[in-house]
Amino acid sequence: MSAIKRLILDVLKPHVPSIIELAKRLGDLEGISGVNISLKEVDTDTDNVKITIEGDNIDYESVKRVIEECGAAIHSIDGVAAGLRLVEEISTPQDR
Question: Over the stretch 10-62, which tens digit does the pLDDT of each residue have?
């Protein structure tokens, strides 16, 4: 059975909880081995963040639930990797 190994999400969140707290909560989920949250933009009431999650078996619904419990919303899924191992994106001549 194929499992999600990496998720890259564009998320709009309120200032509270902090990205530290959100990262800890996501990192505590079963199947997740690492979380990276980068602040992209700050507005009066919200933060736009990029969340990269890696693990052996990421359950998207659990990730979505934690994000929503923190008052945040997933704008888009910007990347996903699944299978037995991670496959890194490579540059081709058409990308230039």
Answer: 999 999 999 999 999 999 999 999 999 999 999 999 999 999 999 999 999 99
* Predicted TM-score of the model (pTM): 0.91
- Please state at what angle helix 19-27 crosses helix 60-69, rounded to 10 degrees: 150
- Please give the Cα distance from 69 to 35 (Å, whole number): 17
What are the structural domains, with CATH classification, of the chain? 3-84 (3.30.70.1340)
- How far does CA 48 lie from the centroid of its chain? 12
Please write the tens of the pLDDT for every residue from 67-90. 999 999 999 999 999 998 888 888
Distances (CA, A) of 56 to 5, 17, 52, 68: 5, 26, 14, 23
State how far Cα 83 lies from the chain centre: 18
